[in-house]
């Protein structure tokens, strides 16, 4: 997909296969931040209403990205961990309640739930290593299970979950359904209504190609008033512009979870990044990334390097993790030294190309993997 190469003028010696960690920005996002900084330098906040218009546009982009019913359902928080913590701290837990997660979750989707144990809440971890990971989660549901929180794609193994099946199982049992979507938004389509999601959380710095420090938080409208707020400030109230009011109520929309001043610099960058995602189209991105993953999987198989990531195409997204022939850490260090930016995850080496990754980069990376990891 050469049409978009001008957006990613990366070093010619670099093989960037680490979008599952922190993604490079496209040029338009860099330019948006430069313009924002230059305007701030020259004019300060003179054009603040225009900045807020960019933030409003970002909410619309995120609404479209996940097919939320309304922009009122979109909150802008600092990161995934904050969003999951808002849920964990906000629900009215009872002693004996249980939270269900998997045994493959990133700490962001484990620690906030484990922190509830002091309130008598237990955390169950289903083993996803079998042939039916959704079935394992459903089998682990009990009458005491209050919430299922699952990553749409597992960060280490790259396992892609069937969210529609899980959402339906939760709906049938009256269990809240929370999705950590950081490893799929921007690379796979998502429809929060079709999967019956109650909560979706995702930082923008991976597959959405945005900066660290700004995350999507989706809460189904009926559940917003049920979450007890633990952060309060001028921004999270109804009529937030009326600073002289002594009586106040939390806003009815998603801004009720945003206690203070917005991160407008990051809003400009993420909005620019999402404009690229929308121009290309998530369906087209998914197909391009799938082609990259298939190529890497076939080349690794030819080298005799086994995969941690499932072999079935429908179980994969943008992550491919393999086991090197020798010491995993030494392999990773050698690849990094030669410009292959990847990560040690899932017991092996994790590769994560995006839609724009040139075929030449994939071929060069595979040659270096053949040299260092067999």
Give a verbal description of the structure.
With 374 residues, this protein is of the alpha/beta class. It folds into 2 domains: 2-25 and 282-372, Aspartate Aminotransferase, domain 1 (Alpha-Beta Complex); 30-278, Type I PLP-dependent aspartate aminotransferase-like (Major domain) (Aspartate Aminotransferase, domain 2, 3-Layer(aba) Sandwich), CATH 3.40.640. It has helices at residues 27-43, 48-66, 80-90, 111-114, 133-139, 163-173, 264-280, 282-302, 328-337, 359-372; strands spanning 15-16, 74-77, 98-102, 122-126, 145-151, 176-180, 199-203, 215-219, 320-322, 340-341, 343-345, 348-351. α4 links the parallel β3 and β4. α1 (27-43) runs antiparallel to α7, α2 (48-66) packs across α7 (264-280) and α8 (282-302) runs parallel beside α10 (359-372). The longest helix is centred in the last third of the chain and has 21 residues, at 282-302. The two termini are 30 Å apart.
């Amino acid at each position: 997909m050469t049409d978009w190469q001008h957006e990613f003028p990366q070093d010619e010696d670099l093989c960037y296969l680490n979008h599952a960690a922190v993604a490079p920005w496209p040029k338009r996002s860099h330019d948006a931040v430069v313009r924002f900084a230059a305007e701030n330098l020259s004019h300060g906040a003179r054009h603040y209403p225009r900045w807020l218009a960019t933030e409003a546009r970002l909410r619309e982009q995120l609404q479209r990205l996940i097919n939320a019913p309304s922009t009122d359902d979109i909150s802008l928080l600092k990161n995934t961990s904050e969003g999951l913590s808002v849920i964990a701290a906000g629900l009215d837990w009872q002693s004996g309640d249980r939270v269900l997660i998997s045994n493959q979750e990133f700490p962001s989707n484990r620690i906030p739930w484990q922190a509830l144990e002091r309130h008598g809440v237990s955390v169950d971890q289903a083993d996803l290593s079998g042939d039916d990971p959704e079935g394992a989660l459903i089998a682990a549901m009990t009458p005491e299970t209050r919430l299922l929180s699952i990553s749409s794609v597992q960060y280490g193994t790259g396992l892609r979950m069937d969210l529609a099946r899980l959402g339906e199982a939760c709906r049938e049992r009256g269990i809240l359904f929370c999705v950590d979507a950081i490893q799929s938004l921007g690379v796979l389509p998502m429809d929060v209504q079709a999967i019956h999601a109650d909560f979706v959380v995702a930082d923008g710095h991976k597959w959405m190609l945005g900066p660290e420090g700004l995350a999507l938080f989706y809460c189904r409208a009926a559940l917003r008033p049920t979450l007890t707020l633990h952060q309060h400030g001028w921004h999270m109230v109804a009529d937030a512009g009326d600073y002289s009011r002594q009586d106040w109520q939390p806003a009815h929309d998603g801004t009720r979870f945003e206690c203070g001043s917005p991160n407008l610099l990051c809003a400009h960058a993420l909005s620019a990044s999402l404009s690229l995602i929308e121009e290309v189209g998530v369906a087209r991105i998914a197909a391009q990334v799938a082609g990259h993953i298939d190529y890497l999987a076939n080349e690794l198989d030819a080298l005799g390097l086994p995969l941690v990531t499932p072999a079935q195409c429908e179980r994969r997204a943008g992550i491919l993790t393999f086991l090197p022939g020798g010491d995993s850490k030494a392999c990773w260090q050698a690849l990094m030294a030669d410009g292959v930016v990847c990560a040690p995850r899932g017991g092996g080496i994790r590769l994560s190309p995006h839609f724009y990754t040139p075929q030449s980069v994939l071929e060069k990376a595979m040659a270096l993997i053949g040299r260092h990891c067999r």
